[in-house]
Amino acid sequence: MASSPRDVSASVTGAPVAWVDVGREDDRLVHLSAHGEFDIATVDVLRLALRQQLRAGRRSVALDLSAVTFMDVAGIDVIADAQQDFIASGATLLITNPSRQVSRLLRFAGLDNKLLAAHRDAAEVIRRA
To answer: What total of structural domains would you count in the chain?
Structure first.
């Protein structure tokens, strides 16, 4: 785990507006938690956090989106691209607990069933691994 509570962040005038924390880690699953607003100006925070997990050789990553207060198409693009990268690497990216706004955006983009699959609970993925 990184030494900072905010492992990857973006700020405006010194105040963070978007960040991703690395939470619980074990040999089967890493929990990431995204916070704040993810748009064209801050989406690289999310992209970097997900790429770091792939580079570290993580096989399963759960990305909790419950604390995301805003996301636009740029954020959805990053998640969709990351999903493809994880699949190509033989890894699993599980999107969990999307906020209401993110859930609507995923549904509008037609990605809710593809990204959320039938597993809203990361523990189910672990049991199946």
So the answer is: 1
